[in-house]
Amino acid sequence: MKKIIAGLLIASAMLLADGYKQADRIADMQKMAQAMQDIQSGFFYNNADIVKAGVKDLKETIVKIRPIDSEVNNKDIYEKWLNNNMKMTHKIQKKIKQKAEDIEERFVDGDAVQALQAYSKISGQCMKCHVNLRKW
Ligand code: HEC
Fold first, then answer.
1. From CA 90, how far away is CA 62, in angstroms rounded?
2. Of 28, 84, 126, best ligand 1 pocket probe by most atoms within 8 Å of the beta carbon
3. How far is ligand 1, taken at its centre, from the CA of residue 121, in Å?
């Protein structure tokens, strides 16, 4: 029984700091930057498949973004609060997912103007985190 409890405690500790490292986040960011480029190429070449592939990559990756282990474990309360502002992160993630869906819908409908508008809203959300949350 003791062993089971110890195992459960270790498992839950691992869930709290589950190994999301800086390198992982940089890789995810680069994947999203690539997805945004793909979507843009899809617009310019008028190719819905490329747009859809970019939207899919973006939607799959944005949900993975979160504070990395060293931020979760930061001893500086203010920095920790800033970097772990999950409420704002979730809001941004939700918006990016929604707008990504809008892009696909509008573009497939032949409404490239609306698709482009949704695209620039996504760029705005990316920068919202980089500038506001991160103070970049
Ligand atoms: C919730 C916050 C957040 C959101 C949302 C976000 N980013 Fe980032 N981004 C970061 C942080 C933090 C870094 C710095 C990563 C590091 O160096 O540790 C970063 C870095 C980057 C980098 C540089 C990666 C490198 O090679 O150094 C790119 C490119 C990037 N983001 C693209 C995007 C794009 C595109 C989006 C939107 C689709 C986006 N980001 C949305 C927080 C965010």
1. 10
2. 126
3. 16
Burial 105-136 (b: 16+ CB within 10 A, else e): ebbeeeeeeebbebbebbeebbebbeeeeeee
* Domains of the chain (ranges, CATH numbers): 20-133 (1.20.120)
**Ligand 1 center from residue 76 Cα (angstroms):** 22
Ligand 1 centre distance from Cα of residue 124 (Å):
12
- Residue-wise pLDDT for 80-117, tens only, equals 777 778 888 999 999 999 999 999 999 999 999 999 99
Our mutation pick for probing the ligand 1 site, out of 20, 22, 29, 96, counting the most ligand atoms within 8 A of Cβ, is 29
How much of the chain, in percent, has pLDDT values that exceed 70?
85
Q: What is the CA radius of gyration of the chain?
A: 18
Query: What is the predicted pLDDT for the residue at 14?
Result: 47
Atom of ligand 1 at shortest range from CA of 88: 1
Residue carrying the six token digits 């502002």 = 85
pLDDT in tens, 5-33: 665 555 554 445 568 999 999 999 999 99
